[in-house]
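Good morning,

Attaching, inline, the backbone tokens for the sequence recovery test we're adding to the shared suite. The designed sequence is right after.
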């Protein structure tokens, strides 16, 4: 197998994104750049130089349509595949679109779907009441921690505390069960209907008060440039990035905060 350079890894990730965008266009589905990928588009017009992943999001209706299509045939454009815990081919509660021609290794996790991937997050409803929003995110955060620990690598972590504590708590997470945690996250994220509440956000994988916005603002879209290509995102991207990264999001962070997924990848 040929080991890929960081530049080649990013080229494969971009190809997954472009092919998934074509997939969405074919079915009339809206996909947005979000999180660090949107920050990269705005600040660098492409990948954040030290980053090595791609994040996109979809409103729950569009997301569910992708799931329905994938149930019949999860592979598209020859070697791209839609994976999800409900298909028993992913450890995560959200869609990952993978490149089947690659093999991947990640430092901190034991994930059986060892391909280069992009993340596709569902955007779900939130209550208008901030205290109810906070309670929902608190519930999600607990289950998400269990979910991540249930397949984490013992003794691995970015801090000494995590390296020491992980072996102690991983057995309890495994007792709860990965599938049970994913099912609970999927259920919790769909507690509210954004068409009724008027608020939408990344409930499943986001944090309280960050990736949240009014439903009407979310569905108003605009274009951003990423690696020479045009992609959709929410028109309220400035307030979205400010909530997520702070008002100085255009500033380059210090070296110690320039972290990535520590990916290694090969062509199969």
């Amino acid at each position: 197998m040929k080991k890929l350079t960081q530049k080649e890894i990013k080229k494969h990730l971009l190809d997954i994104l472009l092919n998934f965008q074509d997939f969405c266009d074919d079915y009339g589905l809206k996909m947005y750049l979000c999180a660090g990928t949107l920050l990269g588009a705005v600040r660098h017009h492409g990948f954040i130089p030290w980053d090595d992943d791609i994040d996109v999001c979809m409103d729950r209706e569009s997301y569910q349509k992708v799931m329905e299509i994938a149930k019949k045939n999860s592979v598209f454009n020859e070697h791209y595949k839609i994976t999800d815990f409900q298909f028993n081919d992913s450890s995560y509660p959200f869609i990952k679109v993978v490149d089947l021609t690659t093999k991947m290794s990640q430092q901190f996790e034991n994930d059986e779907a060892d391909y280069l991937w992009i993340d596709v997050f569902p955007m779900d409803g939130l209550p208008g009441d901030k205290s109810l929003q906070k309670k929902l995110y608190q519930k999600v955060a607990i289950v998400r921690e269990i979910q991540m620990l249930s397949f984490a690598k013992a003794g691995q972590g970015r801090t000494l505390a995590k390296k020491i504590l992980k072996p102690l708590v991983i057995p309890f997470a495994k007792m709860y069960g990965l599938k049970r945690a994913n099912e609970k996250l999927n259920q919790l994220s769909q507690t509210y209907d954004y068409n009724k509440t008027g608020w939408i956000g990344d409930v499943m994988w986001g944090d309280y008060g960050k990736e949240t916005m009014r439903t009407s603002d979310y569905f108003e879209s605009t274009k951003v440039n990423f690696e020479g290509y045009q992609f959709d995102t929410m028109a309220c991207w400035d307030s979205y990035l400010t909530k997520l990264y702070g008002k100085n999001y255009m500033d380059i962070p210090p070296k110690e905060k320039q972290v990535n997924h520590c990916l290694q990848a090969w062509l199969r």
